[in-house]
Design brief:
The protein is mainly beta. The chain has one helix at about 230-235; strands spanning about 5-10, 10-15, 20-25, 35-40, 50, 55-60, 70-75, 80-85, 90-95, 95, 100, 105-110, 115-120, 125-135, 135-140, 150-155, 160-165, 170-180, 180-190, 200-205, 205-210, 215, 225, 240-245, 250-255, 270-280, 285-295, 300-310, 315-320, 330-335, 350-355, 360, 365-375, 380-385, 385-390, 390-395, 400-405, 410-420, 430-434.
């Protein structure tokens, strides 16, 4: 079941409710219509119909309720509001600071809000909080300023994290968020973020850097938990460039640029390697090599720009191949025991005893249920009438499951079950849609 598929496209995000990856396609896209967004089913690799969203779409961020995807439109210095329920662009909202139009280099949606975002407007201006009312938007007055962090991530509605690749390549910044905007708390030099090409992910309250840094952002100042040993990667030439943490299963994945040196690229191929680490001893457990089409003997031709976890056992990689004349990235979809090694074990089935709602109103939209029971293992999944739904492991007695709006469009009696990796399904709990 160790499989991979490749799709030619741009930036992407995973929607837990529909279990689809959403990607943006620039104007120069050739295989699919440009200036659009498209949904990809990561289980089958099938690509949906592109939907036009505006000039040069790039970065994306989904609201926590799964209703909207905001898309940066760099060709129009605006922000597109894409309705995930209707699959339509509702508005293109212009952005300007001090009467100067700005484009979004990265964006993050505030938890619990469909109208407030953090927007990275560039190293000279910094990160600003953007409030939307109808089809217009306004930046709050307090911005982070010159070289005070990129790629904002909300820790919660009142706190924001960022990372500075422009100066030291190691500064991790914390901000509080209030009515004035993003207010500085501190900036701390930490290891393992990746320098000028670095990045980080926040997972279950812990920060993971693309070069192996693991950081506790809740102490003052933030403290280094560990720095993953990357000698396995570094010995092949270029170090890691993307990270995908999975705190629930105690794993973190690092994706390097293409391997050179001891491992030669096969003719017509570029060789990439992913490494899985555990977050207990902080050691490498396994690696997976991928062969990507490229020029024979090409060096530095491909790089993993980003990775994310999807589903029970999936990874998605965005890979840029510099040998592509149009510069369009590719998406690689991987699933199997490399991602979730407990699939290889014979585990007991969990017991399902209840849910936060056993009755859901018809047409009530996206719903998040908390499922209770016993014997849940990391990687456990909830099934809706036998079909998997996006599931978050909380602890041995609790799971969180995303129920899509499409699941509750008509009255029904639904059988809810749970399944551990390598186990049969639990007994069924009845959910009534009425």
């Amino acid at each position: 079941r160790q499989t991979s598929r490749r799709k030619r496209t741009g930036r992407r995000r995973h929607d837990p409710f529909t279990r689809k990856l959403y990607a943006t396609l620039p104007s120069g896209a050739t295989n699919l219509t440009g200036n659009s967004t498209v949904a990809v089913d990561p289980v089958t690799g099938s690509v949906g119909t592109p939907v036009s969203v505006g000039s040069e779409p790039n970065v994306m961020a989904e609201t926590s309720d799964g209703n909207y995807m905001f898309v940066g439109l760099s060709g129009a210095n605006s922000l597109g509001r894409f309705n995930l329920l209707t699959q339509q662009l509702e508005a293109a909202i212009p952005m300007s600071i001090a009467s100067t139009q700005v484009a979004a280099l990265s964006i993050a949606t505030m938890p619990g809000s469909d109208t407030t975002l953090a927007v990275d407007t560039g190293s000279l201006t910094g990160i600003a909080i953007f409030d939307i009312a109808g089809n217009t938007g306004t930046f709050r007055s307090q911005v982070t300023g010159v070289d005070n962090g990129d790629d904002p991530v909300f820790a919660d509605a009142a706190h924001l994290y960022a990372y500075d690749p422009e100066t030291s390549g190691a500064n991790f910044y914390r901000y509080s968020v209030d009515a004035s905007g993003a207010v500085p708390i501190d900036g701390t030099v930490l290891n393992g973020f990746g320098g000028a090409s670095g990045s980080f992910k926040l997972d279950n309250g812990t920060v993971y850097g693309a070069a192996g840094g693991i950081v506790n952002p809740n102490t003052t100042p933030p403290s280094q938990i560990a720095t993953l040993g990357i000698s396995t990667l570094a010995s092949f030439g270029l170090g890691p460039s993307a990270v995908a943490p999975d705190t629930a299963t105690g794993k973190v994945f690092l994706g390097p640029a293409n391997l050179t040196g001891p491992i030669a690229n096969p003719p017509g191929q570029i060789l990439l390697s992913l490494v899985r680490y555990n977050t207990t001893q902080f050691v490498a457990e396994s690696s997976l090599n991928l062969q990507i089409p490229g020029a024979a003997g090409q060096v530095n031709a491909s790089q993993v720009n980003d990775m994310l976890r999807w589903g029970q056992d999936g990874l998605a990689l965005r890979v840029t191949n510099n040998t592509n004349s149009n510069g369009v990235s590719q998406i690689y979809l991987i699933r199997g025991p490399f991602v979730l090694p407990s699939e290889l074990d014979a585990n007991p089935a969990p017991t399902l005893t209840g849910a936060s709602q056993t009755t859901i109103p018809v047409n009530s939209g996206n719903t998040t249920l908390t499922v209770t029971g016993s014997g849940f293992l990391p990687g456990a999944i909830v099934l809706w009438n036998g079909s998997a739904r996006s599931t978050t492991f909380v602890d041995a007695g609790h799971l969180s499951v995303a129920v899509a709006a499409a699941d509750v469009t008509s009255a029904a009696s639904v059988g809810l079950t749970a399944q551990n990796p390598g186990s049969t399904a639990s007994g069924a709990l009845t959910i009534t849609v009425q």
